[in-house]
């Protein structure tokens, strides 16, 4: 089989490469000539573990190629996937479908013979039907079927998610289109991957509902963490206690500074706008959006409180800028709220991130960068863990304590135990946990730092 993929961003590049790994011939097309030049040189414009090697493998095998020529990309294909950006509109929060519709119209006018036109981009309910209208306007309804096939790729684990997904969702109204889509995903049958074959409208809602539900779980446990801090309870034990219930599950129940990234913020916002459009307000999701925004503000205040209520003139070390580990993505990361607040109150912020510095420098200003976590901690008045990179899980706490001006450790990811930090004299501030935890074998309160 042969497919074209329009858009070589995160979704398009990962999806196209993984389809090639399945044995499909794939041509990826993008209007950005510089990006295509980089890809043809073997340079990957995004950071995703294992992707560079897999792209090189498929290019060498002749199953994957890159071009700026749309006609070349969609010539004699079975399907064309639209994988362009759908950012939130600044005016109202709706998903901006400009690129989706532009791509659809160009594809419809270019393809020859029967083709399945697939929306891989995250799009609001009704988008597939709007594209069908464009198909009819162009007089191609006999040649083109429109299908919704949302992606469920986690940054940092995208290849595994594509190759061994929890499910594949296909929304179409044509038996012929369904046959093509099943054939494309046939390699997953051996893994007995569930296939959800449904209408385009249902498929589109599934994507938003999935992300909104996960964002809700994160927000819920963060609210519970606030209660635990006030009541002297342990949010990690609460999460374990409820997560063992099979109806709830343990995933996405880790208290922290709030969700970020390229999906949850824009998708929850888009879902609230869609609900209003259809006269069915999504009040739970609306609350989630509001609480998450407040959460990131609260984390900055947590750092300020740990520093005695004033950070002016203080050096604050920050570990982790990316919204999560294993990615360089800083879009809507909690750090983009926390760092500027601290800077605005007169703090001197020094940061380290294993991967995300280049992306972060585009949006964060007046930020000093260090080459390693220990340089961040040197002479610092406080050290804040924002992203739970593996590099930060086994820090030499004795060395850090020795180098810091004041031993304040604000752990926004609950990486450490009190018993690990207490011997080094830290004033330790975790999330949703009392200072003394059962099983920590500590007998005294942590030392407050003046």
- CATH H level, superfamily name of the largest domain: NAD(P)-binding Rossmann-like Domain
Number of helices: 17
Largest sheet: 8 strands, mixed
Strand content: 5-15%
Give the CATH level 1 class of the largest domain. Answer: Alpha Beta
DSSP strand tally: 14
Mean pLDDT across the residues is 94
Task: Trace the largest sheet across and list its strands.
Answer: 3-2-1-4-5-6-7-8
Uncertain runs: 436-450
CATH fold topology of the largest domain: Rossmann fold
Rg value: 24 Å
Kindly state the percentage of residues in helix. 40-55%
Q: Rough shape?
A: elongated
- Domain count, please report it: 2
Q: Terminal Cα separation, in Å?
A: 67 Å
Q: Which secondary-structure class do the elements indicate?
A: alpha/beta
Q: Which assembly state applies to the chains in this document?
A: single chain
CATH architectural label of the largest domain: 3-Layer(aba) Sandwich
Characterize this entry briefly.
The chain has helices at 10-21, 33-40, 51-61, 70-73, 98-110, 127-137, 158-163, 175-184, 200-231, 235-243, 264-277, 283-306, 335-344, 357-360, 373-377, 397-403, 418-421, and strands at residues 2-6, 25-29, 64-67, 79-82, 115-119, 144-148, 168-172, 195-198, 315-319, 348-352, 368-369, 382-385, 408-411, 427-429. It is of the alpha/beta class.
């Amino acid at each position: 089989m042969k497919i074209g993929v329009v858009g070589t961003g995160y979704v398009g590049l990962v999806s196209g490469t993984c389809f090639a790994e399945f044995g499909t011939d794939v041509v990826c097309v993008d209007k950005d000539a510089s990006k295509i030049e980089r890809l043809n040189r073997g340079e990957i414009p995004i950071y995703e573990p294992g992707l560079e090697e897999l792209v090189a493998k498929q290019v060498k095998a002749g199953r994957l190629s890159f071009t700026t020529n749309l006609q070349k990309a969609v010539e004699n294909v079975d399907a064309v996937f639209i994988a362009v950006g759908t950012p939130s509109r600044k005016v109202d929060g709706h998903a901006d479908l400009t690129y989706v519709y532009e791509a659809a119209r160009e594809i419809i006018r270019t393809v020859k013979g029967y083709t399945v036109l697939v929306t891989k981009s995250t799009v609001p309910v009704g988008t597939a039907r709007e594209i069908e209208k464009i198909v009819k306007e162009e007089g191609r309804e006999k040649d083109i079927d429109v299908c919704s096939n949302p992606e469920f790729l986690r940054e940092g684990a995208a290849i595994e998610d594509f190759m061994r997904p929890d499910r594949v969702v296909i929304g179409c109204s044509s038996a012929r289109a369904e046959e093509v889509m099943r054939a494309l995903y046939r390699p997953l049958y051996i893994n007995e991957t569930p296939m959800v074959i449904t209408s385009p409208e249902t498929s589109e809602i599934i994507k938003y509902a999935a992300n909104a539900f996960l964002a809700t779980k994160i927000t819920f446990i963060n609210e519970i963490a606030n209660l635990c801090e006030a009541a002297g309870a342990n949010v990690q034990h609460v999460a374990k206690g409820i997560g063992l219930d099979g109806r709830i599950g343990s995933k996405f129940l880790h208290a922290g500074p709030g969700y970020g990234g390229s999906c949850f913020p824009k998708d929850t916002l888009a879902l609230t706008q869609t609900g209003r459009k259809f006269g069915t307000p999504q009040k739970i999701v609306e609350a989630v959006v509001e609480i998450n925004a407040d959460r990131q503000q609260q984390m900055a205040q947590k750092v300020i409180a740990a520093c005695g209520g004033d950070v002016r003139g203080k050096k604050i070390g920050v570990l982790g800028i990316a919204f999560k580990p294993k990615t360089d993505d800083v879009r809507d990361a909690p750090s983009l709220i926390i760092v500027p607040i601290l800077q605005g109150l007169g703090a001197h912020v020094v940061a380290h991130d294993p991967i995300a510095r280049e992306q972060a420098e585009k949006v964060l200003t007046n930020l000093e960068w260090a080459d390693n976590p220990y340089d961040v901690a040197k002479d610092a008045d406080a050290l804040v863990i924002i992203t739970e990179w593996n590099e930060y899980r086994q820090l030499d706490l004795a060395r850090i304590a020795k180098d810091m001006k004041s031993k304040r450790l604000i752990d926004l990811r609950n990486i450490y135990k009190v018993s690990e930090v207490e011997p080094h004299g830290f004033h330790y501030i975790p999330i949703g946990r009392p200072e003394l935890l059962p099983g920590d074998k500590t007998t005294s309160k942590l030392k407050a730092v003046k």
